[in-house]
Amino acid sequence: MARRKQIYEGKAKILYEGPEPGTVIQYFKDDATAFNNQKHAVLEGKGVLNNRISEFVMLGLERICIPTHFIKRLNMREQLIYHVEIIPLEVVIRNVAAGSICKRLGFKEGEPFARPVVEFYYKKDELGDPLVSEDQINAFGWANPQEIDDMMAYTLRINDYLCGMFAGVGIQLIDFKVEFGRQYDGDLMRIILADEISPDSCRLWDIETGEILDKDRFRKDLGGLTDAYTEVAKRLGILRKNEEISDTEEISDTKGPVLVSNNDDKKD
Ligand code: TMP
Fold first, then answer.
1. Going by CA atoms, what residue is nearest to atom 16 of ligand 1?
2. Of 68, 175, 197, 206, which alpha carbon lies 20 to 30 A from 228's?
3. What are phi and psi of 176, to 5 degrees?
């Protein structure tokens, strides 16, 4: 049997040629990196959790008519997605001050913003993904004004949806990053959501305790990253209460989010 062809290897994912033209297989690795790859570790089970959480989020977004690259999950670490031409931008939206905006503009961590703030970063590892303006994006040809508008509008809608989804399970969505791609169909082109949405690309704090449930556990050397991601998956109903993630066993069907109304029900 011929080996499938690798198209691209990123820090946390690998892309392989898909079974049909226009499709790609996205494989979730256990690798965690931070500060532009200066820090690296392999955290067993992270890829499996992100595959499931991202699937859950993409399916939810499809239901509110956000076009995404997600077609279906294939197994514990892989999903079938549409091939897109990635727009070289990381679109970040922030509800509460945390991370780089605190360093850059002096906000106090945890300070809520009057409204969600959208930022664009140019995807270029050699430059450390710098913050860029809409005028730069347009002038340098990374995206045109209509595409910028589409990305902004989708990101705001995704934020509204995710804020509600996470609040329902006792989690505050502080900020997150998304990426978009162009999908071509003959002469037609549309912008669709690509990459992943998982605790690797979001900041998620427990509403009651403020506990960090995202990749900041790794960035800040707090430990317990896969336990935190497992907690997110359990609250969303992706994993059952007493279930742990495993690479070999198929996990139960998604039961839907668990309403977190009091502390007794939160932990095993
Ligand atoms: P920042 O505060 O470090 O700019 O991060 C903002 C959000 O974007 C946060 O939820 C983490 C996410 N993010 C990524 O997904 N990838 C990255 O490379 C960076 C820097 C941030």
1. 201
2. 68
3. -160, 170
Q: Which of 39, 126, 163, 177 to mutate to test the pocket of ligand 1 (most atoms within 8 A of CB)?
A: 177
For 141-198, the pLDDT digits (tens) are: 999 999 999 999 999 999 999 999 999 999 999 999 999 999 999 999 999 999 999 9
In this structure, which residue's CA is closest to atom 18 in ligand 1?
A: 36
Neighbours of 233 (CB within 10 A): 24
12 lines ligand 1 (CB under 6 A): no
Give the Å distance between the CA of 119 and the centre of ligand 1: 11
Where do the domains of the chain lie, and which CATH numbers do they carry?
A: 6-84+224-235 (3.30.200.20), 85-206 (3.30.470.20)
* DSSP-assigned beta bridge partners for residue 15: 8, 26
Structure tokens at 252: 């139960």
Q: Does residue 231's CB lie within 6 angstroms of at least one atom of ligand 1?
A: no
Q: Judge if the beta carbon of residue 100 lies within 6 A of ligand 1.
A: yes
The pLDDT tens digits of the residues spanning 17-36 come to 999 999 999 999 999 999 98
Confidence (pTM): 0.92
| Identity of the amino acid at 236 | L
Q: How far is the CA of 55 from the centre of ligand 1 (A)?
A: 20
**Per the structure block, which two tokens stand in for 185?**
């169909």
DSSP state string for 142-208: SS-HHHHHHHHHHHHHHHHHHHHHHHTTTEEEEEEEEEEEEEEETTEEEEEEES--STTTEEEEETT
Give the sign of the dihedral formed by CA 16, CA 19, CA 21, CA 24.
negative
